[in-house]
Specification:
With about 290 residues, this protein is α+β, with helices and mostly antiparallel strands. It has a four-stranded antiparallel beta sheet. A hairpin with a 6-residue loop joins strand 1 and strand 2. Helix 6 packs across helix 7. The chain is globular and about 55 Å long.
């Protein structure tokens, strides 16, 4: 007789009584539940894990707004995090607003305060790939082509890929593109230009280059009050000064600024100074001696 079979059958006959009762269907006492069990929301059918697709064909499914490598459920939070980073950076002179129709399209404007493009107000649109952040680099297109070596003279698209040749997930962010778009107007780069004429003039005839830049800035200013090219309630638009509307808003902003300045003054007067006026010796507020 098989020894293994004898051991298994004998061990089965020697089960504890408690185990036999459980197998017989005797109910067990369990602690009462004080609250209903929490459940996670159902995952959309078209949502997939946050990993790169195994097949390149999957990444091509981008025409209908679905996201092959980054499901729409996750993409929404990714873009929300990107916009939060933009707000935290507080880029000087740069303002953006996501589109109402699609979070993959952001409207923006850049104010140039000094340099060759001084007084320039350039509206633009950022187009984000629908498989972001696993796809290609987002595109930035100005509403009007600007005379600049790195701006396409026909489409108005900025050469972003020279700074982000390969978009790296969790390393590159949209606020970096906005910062780059601002920097190109202060530091001119003429290598491999999209506008060869602008590059040649900047290298050979700076005065003529400046003249064309001034004309480009004036052209953008003359179209500043034009309706947005894309019909969207969140598109950035400008309107001429209207005292009935803007005076009240201006007074509110100035009054708020005055109150903040007065608060800062009061804090400085009532606080302790580190250095006595006219001296470099540190000191603290004189202590009043109490009468004995």
């Amino acid at each position: 007789m098989n020894t293994f079979w004898n051991m298994s059958t004998s061990s089965a006959r020697k089960r504890p009584e408690t185990e036999e009762k459980a197998l017989a269907g005797e109910p067990k006492n369990s602690p009462p539940r004080t609250a209903p069990k929490k459940q996670l929301p159902t995952i959309p059918k078209n949502a997939v894990p946050m990993t790169k697709p195994a097949s390149p064909a999957l990444s091509a499914q981008s025409t209908n707004g679905t996201h092959a490598s980054y499901g729409p459920f996750y993409l929404e939070y990714s873009l929300l995090a990107e916009f939060t980073l933009v707000v935290k950076q507080k880029l000087p002179g740069v303002y953006v607003q996501p589109s109402y129709q699609s979070a993959l399209m952001w409207f923006g404007v850049i104010f140039i305060r000094h340099g060759l493009y001084q007084d320039g107000v350039f509206k633009f649109t950022v187009y984000i790939p629908d498989n972001y952040p696993d796809g290609d680099c987002p595109r930035l297109v100005f509403d009007l082509p600007i005379f600049h070596p790195l701006v396409d003279p026909v489409s108005g698209e900025l050469d972003v890929k020279r700074a982000f040749a390969k978009w790296r997930r969790n390393h590159n962010h949209i606020w970096q593109i906005l910062m780059y778009a601002r920097r190109v107007f202060y530091k001119i780069d003429t290598t491999s230009p999209l506008n060869p004429e602008a590059a040649v003039l900047y290298e050979k005839d700076v005065q003529l280059f400046k003249s064309k830049v001034v004309d480009s800035v004036k052209l953008c200013s003359s179209h500043l009050f034009d309706p947005p090219k894309i019909e969207d309630p969140y598109a950035i638009s400008f309107s001429p000064w209207n005292p009935a509307i803007h005076d009240e808003a201006r007074e509110k902003m100035l009054s708020q600024k005055k109150s903040e300045d007065s608060q800062c003054k009061n804090m400085q007067v009532s606080g302790l100074s580190w250095v006595k006026p006219g001296s470099v010796e540190p000191f603290s507020k004189e202590e009043k001696t109490l009468p004995t």
